[in-house]
Amino acid sequence: MVISINNAVNRFLLGIDIFGQTFTINVNGKRNYTTACGGITSVLVIAIVIMSSWNTIINFFWKSNLQVSISSEHNMDSPIIKQDSNNFMLAIGLKQMDNAQLQYFEIEIEQRLYNNNSEQISYIELEKCSNERLLQLQENQAINMTQVLPQQFQGSLLCLKNNQTLHFHQSGPNQLEFLRINIKKCQNFTNSELRCASQDEINQFIRKNRQFTLQLYFGNYILNPYNKGENYAQKFLDDSVTISFIPQKLLRSVTLLLRKYNIMNDDSVMPFQSNEKSEINLISSEDKIEIVDLGRDDDEVYGYIDIKQDIFTTTIKRSCLKLHTLLSQIGGLLQALSLVLGSLIVQYNKLQMSLDLANQIFQFEKNSEVKIEQIKQLKEINNVIEQQKEQSRTEKSPHSQRQLHKSQVDSPYSGIEVNKLFFNVLRSQFEFQTNSERKIQLNQRNRIISKQFNFEKNNTKWVQKFGYTSSKDYFRKSIIGILTRYSPLILNFKFLINQITFGKLFQCNDSKLLEIALKKINMLSDSKYLFEKLNEIDKLKQILLTKDQLTIFNFTSKPIISFKIKNRRASKNSLYKQYNQYIQNKQNLIDDIIYNYEQVLSVYEKIEQTKILYPENHYQTNIIRRLIKQIDPELLTIYRLQKYIESQEVIEQLSEVEQQQNSVNCLISDEV
């Protein structure tokens, strides 16, 4: 019961594993097939992403790349706005160049409240803007007023007295609280320093200046929410609001709207928010409402300015560029570039991978004419050797023929072993003869060896006629000729254009070979083909092995992995890699390639010798025969001829040594 519960829990855990790894077939021992072109493109994509996102990354660290959202909403029941005379700078004055003690009009500020059908009016006290008052406002408002206020107008300006509160509120159509600045007819002043202008003085001013102009100065803001830090709100002295009028002839009214701005600052670069809220009230001269009307003789008010609360509230949200937003922007750009360039590189890598596999599995014969010439030369060399063999059979003695017969191509011994055996036999016979017998034998042997030496010397001169200096040189040049003829296909510009145009352009023999190779690789990499081959291997096991042998075969131990260094035998893939490096001029590996070919082909002699261990019709003999047939006939013939030439060279050297030894022995026998 416990085991079944454990199994059920285990199956459940296996079923919900979201980190499961897929199993794929590797290529050249790697999970992914990569190319230098793909690496260059990857570096190019990364460089483009870095260059394109460099400013964004720098702004991210300096928090200068802000994301701003601005929204406005209609609010009929907005909270009341209270402004203090100390933080709300307001100065009013007529633009007049003459005597500042002469007052043409009276300016008053009313605080008006309309509540349903009732009306309440209170007055805001004004005073002359003295230098002390201007300096106080300059310190409180952080505004340099001396650069804005004209020096000639400063004496005629009126400012709000200290410790006064201004109210701005609008709640529906029945409740309204606002500020009105009236321009009224001047009354007599109790202060002897000021006096009201007469009608003649007013008319004289109009004839000179055409009209009266009331200038309004107030503290305002410029909002630039995209500025980093606290510099998004700049305060300044606004002098853009004026009102022009002609008493009792032209009446003008202006309505200004005081809008509330809620500003939310988020300085955090992390995904969570850290908002700091602030409020700013500003008057936009663009939203002002101006009305012009004709005046009348009984007008007491020649013009007025209303400052009301705006029924719209604006919310500004400022936030730094978040980390996840930065990553998404960079990732999006990387994704777009990967989609555009990656689609081309994926096709290129796929084509290069198929071509690389084809070069490792198949051999491509590009130049058939070179092959015909090499085969022709190979036949000529073989014919010369056959003629030499035939001449050797007729001219040599039976004893010498038996000794030299062991050095033929089909001999079970190689060249050096034949020479050692031949030399030891001659030496043993020479040591156990008497002096007289030795004399007779030496004379006979000298004639045989001299004749044999001359024959073997002529027998190796024909090698030089074909352009070879020795057996090693013959084998080396023959292998290089085969490798050059079967050079691998290289993916170049012509191949790419041929594949892009579906074989319409640059159609050549190499393109045809490439097309055939791609079809074969696609067939070999098909899962159906692989499964069929696995089934065939399983069937071969059933045919070749008995039931008991199959049981032992399936019970064999696993391959052991240890730190012991094993000597690796040369394989076709290793030869391909060495030659591929050789043709790319990376390393001079041709000597290693020739050596590996010699080592591989030397195994052929061992396999050939094992045939004598089995009867003629034994299945192992048939397997060996079929195995030898799988070797390239041209390569096998070159190896046999190389061994024959090598054995002749060794016999020639042995004959020279033997002749010198016989000369010495003759001198010794004469003295005896």
From TrEMBL:
Residues 388-409 are annotated as: Disordered. The keyword rRNA-binding does not apply. GO terms for biological process: reciprocal meiotic recombination. The chain crosses the membrane at residues 40-62. Keywords: Membrane, Transmembrane, Transmembrane helix. Residues 388-398 have a biased composition (Basic and acidic residues). GO terms for cellular component: nucleus. This is Transmembrane protein. It comes from Paramecium octaurelia.
